[in-house]
Amino acid sequence: MLKTQTLISIVGPTAIGKTTLGIDLAIHFNSEIISCDSRQFFKEMTIGTAVPNIDELLAAKHHFIKHISIFDEYNVGQFEKDALLKLDELFIKNSIQIMVGGSGLYLDAVLNGLDDFPEVDLSIREELTQLLKEKGIEYLQVQLKKLDLESYKNIAIDNPHRIIRALEICLGTTKPYSSFKNKPKTPRNFNSIKIGLTADRKLIYDRINQRVDLMMENGLLEEAKKLHPFKH
Question: All domains of the chain, ordered by start, with CATH?
Answer without folding.
Answer: 6-115+185-230 (3.40.50.300), 122-180 (1.10.20.140)
